[in-house]
Amino acid sequence: MNYGAFVNRTPYTYNKALKRIYLENQGGAPYPVRSRSSFLVPFSEDHRAEIRHYLRKERIRFKSATDRQLEKLLEYCNGLEEDGS
User: Fold this and answer.
1) Please, are residues 74 and 55 in contact by the beta-carbon 8 Å criterion?
2) Region of residue 56 (left: phi > 0; alpha: psi -120 to 50; beta: else)
3) pLDDT in tens, 52-82
4) Global pTM?
């Protein structure tokens, strides 16, 4: 029997697909978001506390966030920016 074909074969592995999140401000370059703190950087100091509170209340974790959670988060953030509060 010839087993030579299997000697150099690499075993199969599984890698979880990585989700990459970017923020883009109207016409600006995409900004990578890897964590809660990096998400908050583009926002004003006035809004950061409110956004932190929303993230805790909604239990949003960027590594495991669903698309719907991220959509709701951005709707909330856009609402803050529009209100100017």
Assistant:
1) no
2) alpha
3) 999 999 999 888 888 899 999 999 998 987 7
4) 0.69
Which alpha helices (DSSP H) does the chain contain, by range? 36-40, 45-58, 67-83
DSSP annotation of 43 reads S
Residue 14 is given by DSSP the state -
Cα–Cα distance, 63 to 18 (Å, whole number):
9
Question: Which of 37, 50, 36 shows the shortest CA–CA distance to 84?
Answer: 50
pLDDT for the residue numbered 58: 94
**In whole angstroms, what is the distance from residue 42 CA to residue 31 CA?**
9
The domain limits of the chain are 4-83
Q: Which of 29, 70, 31, 27 is nearest to 51 (CA)?
A: 70
Tokens of 63: 């590594």
**Location of structure tokens 């909604």:** 58
CB 16 within 8 Å of CB 27 = no
